[in-house]
Amino acid sequence: MRNKDRQAVSVPAQPPGERVAGRGVFQALPPLVWALLVLVAGLALTAELARREMRDAGARADMLYNSLADAAQARLRDGLDDAAVALRAMQTVFLSAGDIDQPTFTRYHDNLRAVDDLPGYIVTAFARRYPGVPDSAPFYRYELLSPLEGNEALLWLDVTTQPDNLAALEKARDADHPSMSAPFHLAQFSDADDAGLGITLRLPVYSRGQVPDSVEERRARELGALAISLRLEPLVRTALQGRILEYMHVDLRDLDAVGDDRVFTSRTQPAAGGPTPTLTRLLEFGDRRWELRLQPLASRLDSDRSRSILLFGTLVSVLAALLLWSIAGTHRRALALGQRMSARFIESEARFRTLNELLPALVLLAGSDGTITYANQFARRRLGEVVGTRLDALYKDPGPRMEVADASGREAGWDEREMEITTSEDTFWARVSLAPVVVDGQPHMLLTATDISEQRELNARLRYQASHDALTELCNRREFERRLTLALATHRAHPETPPFALLYFDVDQFKLINDLSGHRAGDQMLVEMVLAISQNLREGDLFARLGGDEFGLLAYAVNEEEALALAERLRRCIDSVRFVWEGRTHSVSASIGVVMSDRAGATLQDVMAWADSACYLAKENGRNRVHLYREDDDTTRRHGEMEWANRMRGALEQGRLLLDYQEVVPLTTAVLDGPYIELLLRLRDEAGTVVMPGAFLPAAERYGLMPAVDRWVIGTVLSNFARLHPAAAGLQTCAINLSGASIDDEDLADFILECIARHQVPAQRICFEITETVAVRSLLKVTRVIERLRAAGCRIALDDFGSGMSSFGYLKNLPVDVIKIDGSFIREVDTDAMSRTIVSAIVQIGHQRGLKVVAEWVDNDGARGVLDELGVDYGQGFALHMPERVVFQRD
Q1: Same-domain pairing of 607 and 662
Q2: What's the pLDDT tens digit per position in 791-844?
Q3: 722 with 757, same domain?
Q4: Is residue 318 assigned to a domain?
Q5: Closest by Cα among 801, 875, 872 to 840
Q6: How many domains are contained in the chain?
Q7: Domain range spanning residue 621?
Q8: 8 Å CB contact between 155 and 128
Q9: Which residues form the CHASE domain (predicted)?
Q10: What is the CATH number of the domain that holds 607?
């Protein structure tokens, strides 16, 4: 055999001369020489390619540096142009609307999108022009700012104290085009470093009308100036970010500056080791000239690609030489490696087959025709001898059987699915996967399955326990509410369907049975009662235990008359039960509340609350009776108040009470040194919705929660006084309402004074409001509390004045500082003569007593004008200010 192999691969012998001539030059030289020749040639070629690349890189670098310089100039101008566009938009607002106030200014500013992405943006401000005293120049003070937070230092700042700003303002006024100041340290930043260095862009503001054409008309119609403040560092760095700062050292100078002309210098240094070209660009904007100087850095542009070519070329040359050197031994090593891999593959296949045999799962292999060719040990023990049978024959249901047969025919598998597998002895559920595989070059289907029968049985048992009551085996409250929610949704979607009814059962005197005979007796009594009721239920209705001695019944397709008849029949059935325990006989009865489903928009909570209210009323009327829910049931109102009381307690515990403020605005000659606000209480419910006080305060007053609420308000306000209003510590007056229940608290004054002292809030800035009805009811207690608070410096306001019968009679006996006219008189003061007369009388009496007069509910401009004529000092209402959330709760 070996001789034959040798003959098969042997080559006929050649004459000696021919063999020498055929070897050629390649065979005459040893492999090491050829390797050195290839190495030298490769290195020479690499050097030439690197030289050419360095030449081309220099040309590309010059082109890139010029394009980066142009881009830097354009980007800087774009940022300044965006700021100028924003200024022009705000100027247009003044030309069309005339003089505007802070809220209007803030609203237009917030709607202005031009500054949203403006780098370095600090504030948009309006400085009003004030004529100077004779023989002196006018001055400009900042009055309108947006945003105000963080820029309070600018408020009322005189522009004439900033010469650079004033020069820019005057240029802009005369030319009606944006004017830019020299770089200066912004007033908002206390540290005199580069972080506070900035510029302002300005545009004039003219009085309402067309844009003036001449310098004289512009100066005559000047109202003030708009300004946008920009920090230079983020403005310039954002414009130059990216490849400009990556490849260039940037130096920006102000050619028109006196003294230090530096605007911006990048933190990088120019390339070392020789002169580098300096690219210069001139940027002219807003009557100023900026010079932009750019120098290349020690960049990768010069040498990276050249070094890469040298490195790669050298590496390739060395590898080619080594390849020639090692080619002789490569074939031998490859053969040896192949033999070792073959042996390892055979060993791995044996381990795989052994592992399959030991797996605690079914593993089956079937051919392309669906016939099983292999089954592991677990499959043989669980299914019997299945080799030779068809794979789809294992499935009982025709659906999975066809699915497996179809997958085998198309050689397409699928992920895990739950299916029933049938054996000669039993049927079980399994989680099955089917995948196409190739064995010995032929297509097969590999099936793996895990027995999940016990798991499915356990899941079914758990689902049943989760939805049923363990004692009575009825549905529990969770399942009942789910089915009730489904029924309500179905009825809303299809209102033409017959209505259904909810019957709410509550066993009468159930606690008595537990107390007399024990809880085991109570449980047994419930079981017997449920058995009696179940024998009298209609088919299809849902009966459930809702908890303790409460049960619910969903009666489908019944009208009101049929529902009441069913409830009465079940009541009599319960009443007929006689429960005997240890020789003692107990009679059983239940009160039943009935609610129909034909109420539009009813939710699960509504229906359950109505049913509970109807059941409660049935008990109130003597027990052992049926009551149909009516909308005018007083119980519903009482239940709603109890629910709100519970929700109020939860809101206090969980910190879900909120505070809004509404500004009190001067109307006539009254002058304020800062904002005057009244705090208004709100509540955030469990779903996150903000609830107005009319919904929860009556319940809080009925169930004695107002003292706790008032103390929470007082403590929260005084501990956050500087964070109530955007004016911060400049807030002049904060009004807090006190309820009648709090006035009756003997320790209220001590608590208020202790909070004022602890938080160091000036007492004269706090005003407590007491309603007229509370003052009349508890005149003596109110007077004592008022006198203590006023002695400490607090002010007192009499709220809802005029709503009582004896307002003018007791006013002289109450030591108050402010009276607030009841809003019912203000609402019609501009149309009703009687309301106007009453308001006029209150104003005259209040002023005679030296009191300030505030009008509530000022909701239109007509009412404001009348109140101004009548001499009312302050106004409060939606026409003057819409309530806003206090600053510290806005997040």
Answers
A1: no
A2: 999 999 988 887 654 456 566 667 889 999 988 788 888 888 888 888 998 898
A3: yes
A4: no
A5: 872
A6: 4
A7: 468-632
A8: no
A9: 147-241
A10: 3.30.70.270
Give the whole-angstrom CA distance, residue 226 versus residue 105. Answer: 11
Which tokens sit at 206? 């003219």
Phi and psi for 661 in degrees, rounded to 5?
A: -125, 145
Q: Check residue 136 and report its DSSP letter.
A: S
The single-letter code of the amino acid at 735 is A
Inside any domain, residue 344: no
**H-run or E-run covering 526:** helix 519-534
Give 719-781 as a DSSP string: HTGGGSSTTGGG--EEEEEE-HHHHT-TTHHHHHHHHHHHHT--GGGEEEEEEHHHHHHTHHH
Domain boundary among 457, 481, 498: 457
8 Å CB contact between 582 and 527? no
Whether 785 and 669 map to the same domain: the answer is: yes
Overall residue count recorded for the chain in this entry? 891
* Separation CA 64–CA 58 (nearest Å): 10
Residue 139 sits in a domain of what CATH number? 3.30.450.350
Residues 616 and 698 in one domain: no
Task: Let me know: does 431 contact 449? Beta carbons within 8 Å.
Answer: yes
Q: Which amino acid is at 557?
A: A
| Residue 452 neighbours by CB under 8 Å, 6+ apart | 418, 429, 430, 431
Beta carbons of 347 and 363 less than 8 angstroms apart: no
Boundary of a domain, candidates 607, 632, 657: 632
Token pair 């489903």 in the structure block, residue: 597
Task: Tell me, yes or no, whether 402 and 518 share the same domain.
Answer: no
Q: Which residues of the chain have pLDDT under 70?
A: 1-31, 34, 114, 190-194, 269-276, 298-304, 324-336, 338, 342-343, 345-356, 358, 396-415, 424, 515, 620, 632-641, 670, 772-773, 775-778, 803-813
Q: Are residues 818 and 843 in the same domain?
A: yes
pLDDT single digits (tens) 475-521: 998 899 999 999 999 888 888 888 999 999 999 878 777 767 778 88
- Domain assignment present for 700: yes
Q: How far from the centroid of its chain's Cα atoms is residue 228's Cα?
A: 31
